[in-house]
């Protein structure tokens, strides 16, 4: 175990691991990996490999900034811990004691859920990430609407009866943090954690960095080349949260340092997972086509008039609006929350259903369909008035395993 080893022994172990880290990077086609390891307060390894920008071939180094995504949850929890230590917050006190947290779907969650439940992903509420994270990592929800949406999240299970990862609850924790000191969470984080630890290159907003030494986001194209994506301001001051990513290399380092058993071949695991991710679009497209053909084969003759579906549809609880209209080439498109980047080209799927599966794998990865794992997330199911026969709403499966969300039609005009 690393606790029983001196720094030289730990360093030797980690240096022997470096070829495995290189394999993980190559298997996943990551543009770069930078590694730093502390052992009993001593830096025992710093290493950088790759480019912060695949186009310019600018190399990474120990000063390169990376978006750390959901690792920021540790900062949020630490901020809460500081407030608990100061007697300004209690782990087991209901959240509604601090903010107007309510659950319209399950009042028990609203009444009893605590900060401990929120931070341990144990509230029972669905994550519903597609209600805040749009394509190209654009945000489609305003921070001021956060609590209203959280209060309308459907439950996955009862309070404290199972783990369900939920980014929203960390945004809720951020609101609680802001209530206590009376200033934005990022100022509290800076003053109480970042500045005391001299973490001067750790910021919540990319614009606050003094230089451009930042690892840019990339995706893997069909030929396995890297395509640079637009920069993501992971946590701007008016942002409620940002997107996340995995890391096999950290698990390999932990296994090596602590001698975890049974040993896992993370190079092989990363290779297999990369293959699954590379083939995700093909699997989705195959399922989409299969169920489309199945439903078309089962239905009687169906006359499709795409004009029937044009209009605006809303779900007031989740603060979402769908605008289905004609594009410049007269085809149908859907725009979500009036955000230009959130547009989908619609085609007839079957019956009173329209589909919008991306036309290629490269469109799928470049536009960053991050939380899209099942074919029916790309299908809109329209409802007709039983008596009049007009379209009066649409259901959309925003999260796998959750009942499709219903949007009421409020406008028949473009």
Verbal overview:
This protein has helices spanning 7-28, 72-85, 107-112, 115-119, 146-150, 168-179, 185-194, 248-258, 266-278, 280-298, 361-366; strands at residues 32-39, 42-53, 58-59, 218-220, 226-228, 311-315, 320-326, 332-336, 343-350, 353-355, 379-384, 391-396, 405-411. The protein is an alpha+beta fold and 414 residues long. It folds into 3 domains: 2-65 and 203-277, no CATH class; 72-194, Beta-lactamase; 281-411, Lipocalin (Beta Barrel). The strands form 3 sheets. An 8-stranded antiparallel beta barrel has the order 6-7-8-9-10-11-12-13. The chain has a 3-stranded antiparallel beta sheet with strand order 1-2-3. Strands 4-5 form a two-stranded antiparallel ribbon. Strand 8 (332-336) and strand 9 (343-350) form a beta hairpin. Helix 1 runs parallel beside helix 9 (266-278), helix 2 packs across helix 7 (185-194) and helix 8 runs antiparallel to helix 9 (266-278). The radius of gyration is 24 Å and the shape is globular. It starts with 6 loop residues before the first helix and ends with a strand. 29% of the residues are buried. The model is unreliable at 235-245 (pLDDT under 50). Residues 22-218 form the Beta-lactamase-related domain. Belongs to the peptidase S12 family. It comes from Fusarium anthophilum. InterPro entries: AmpC-like, Beta-lactam-related, Beta-lactam/transpept-like. This is Beta-lactamase-related domain-containing protein.
């Amino acid at each position: 175990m690393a606790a029983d080893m001196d720094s030289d022994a730990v360093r030797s172990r980690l240096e022997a691991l470096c070829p495995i880290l290189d394999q993980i990077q190559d298997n996943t086609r990551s543009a770069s990996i930078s590694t730093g390891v502390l052992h009993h307060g001593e830096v025992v390894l710093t290493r950088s490999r790759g480019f912060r920008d695949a186009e310019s071939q600018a190399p990474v180094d120990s000063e390169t900034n990376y978006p750390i995504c959901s690792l920021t949850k540790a900062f949020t929890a630490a901020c809460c811990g500081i407030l608990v230590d100061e007697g300004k917050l209690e782990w087991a006190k209901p959240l509604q004691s601090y903010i107007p947290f309510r659950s319209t779907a399950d009042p028990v969650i609203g009444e009893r859920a605590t900060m401990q439940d929120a931070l341990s992903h144990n509230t029972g509420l669905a994550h519903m990430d597609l209600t805040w994270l749009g394509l190209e990592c654009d945000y489609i929800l305003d921070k001021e609407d956060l609590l209203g949406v959280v209060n309308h999240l459907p439950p996955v299970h009862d309070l404290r009866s199972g783990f369900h990862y939920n980014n929203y609850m960390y945004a809720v924790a951020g609101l609680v943090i802001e209530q206590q000191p009376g200033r934005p969470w990022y100022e509290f984080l800076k003053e109480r954690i970042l500045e005391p630890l001299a973490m001067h290159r750790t910021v919540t907003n990319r614009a606050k960095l003094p230089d451009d030494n930042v690892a840019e986001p990339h995706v893997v194209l069909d030929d396995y080349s890297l395509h640079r994506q637009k920069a993501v301001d992971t946590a701007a001051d008016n942002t409620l949260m940002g997107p996340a990513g995995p890391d096999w290399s950290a698990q390999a380092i932990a296994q090596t340092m602590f001698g975890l058993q049974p040993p896992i071949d993370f190079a092989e695991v990363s290779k297999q997972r990369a293959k699954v991710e590379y083939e995700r679009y093909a699997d989705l497209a195959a399922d989409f086509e299969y169920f489309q053909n199945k439903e078309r084969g089962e239905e009687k003759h169906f006359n499709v008039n795409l004009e029937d579906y044009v209009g605006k549809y809303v779900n007031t609880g989740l603060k979402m609006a769908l605008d289905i209209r004609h594009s410049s080439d007269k085809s149908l498109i859907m725009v979500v929350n009036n955000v230009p980047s959130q547009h989908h080209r619609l085609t007839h799927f079957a019956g009173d259903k329209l589909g919008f599966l991306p036309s290629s794998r490269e469109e799928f990865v470049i536009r960053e369909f991050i939380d899209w794992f099942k074919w029916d997330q790309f299908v809109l199911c329209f409802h007709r008035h039983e008596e009049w026969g007009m379209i009066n709403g649409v259901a959309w499966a925003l999260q796998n395993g959750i009942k499709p969300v219903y949007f009421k039609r409020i406008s028949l005009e473009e």
